[in-house]
């Protein structure tokens, strides 16, 4: 089902292209992570469906990051700091006329969202971080980070050969994708940004370290991370949640770093549950999800459930992820307890 969509550009010294999808009393602003292009996004079924799902019952504000897509194409290292990216997000919210919004950030956009939440807490209602990190590179007090060898090699490759570099990045971002999808994302990156912009983005992301800010985040936070993620390893998501007071951590299944690929439904359901007003009814489980929940209550493992239902284990894992998201639980025991309370099993 399509939703309303409008477009605009901020009116300050730097022009940031944005769009508003849907309508409703609440607003969710999406902080961009890597490169994007609002026009090409809308022509891509998976991207369009993902944001239309988020926009049911609310306004979703999206914008192209400075240097990318329809936004100002000139970008410097100073423009890519979390503080500068926070200012761009505020400029978009001001242009739309939104005083307070929930924030969804992915990957490197998480640092900007965390900075915004700490610096301007009156502007942020709730914070959702998907596939994000506080710091990418390893440090003596941060062993879960990456060594600097891979970043240097990747940055050098992108700088010298953007065609090959964009292909390597596609393989890292979407390892589960088929060759046609990898080829699409490779081309998409080159349309959305130049090699110079991509290098600037990469170097800025490798410089991020917002660990000192984590303890100052005071709003409700949901941290989502796919377990088999390659780009941003799972422990980095766990670290974020552990260092923000009261943050809720919800693992998701899959390898894709890109939120709209893989099991995007589980991600949307988790966001829906988190953003729902207090007292809102839980999203109804589908008949198949109830069937899976009953088998979980009987003590069956995923492989046994798959055999019983005649489906693959990946399908069972996807059903379980949806069940966890819809019931706001993080494991099999919690989901079964929910099913018993609701007399579903």
What does it look like?
The chain has 345 residues and is an alpha/beta fold. It folds into two domains: 5-137 and 209-275, Alpha/Beta hydrolase fold, catalytic domain (Rossmann fold, 3-Layer(aba) Sandwich); 287-341, Arc Repressor Mutant, subunit A. The chain contains 15 helices and eight strands. It has helices spanning 38-42, 45-54, 82-96, 109-119, 149-160, 162-173, 179-192, 195-206, 211-214, 234-242, 264-275, 287-297, 302-309, 313-327, 332-341, and strands at 5-9, 17-21, 27-31, 59-63, 101-106, 124-130, 221-226, 248-252. An eight-stranded mixed beta sheet has the order 1-2-4-3-5-6-7-8, with helices on both faces. α10 links the parallel β7 (221-226) and β8. α3 (82-96) crosses α4, α5 runs antiparallel to α8 (195-206) and α6 (162-173) packs across α7. 47% of the residues are buried. The model has no long low-confidence stretch (mean pLDDT 92).
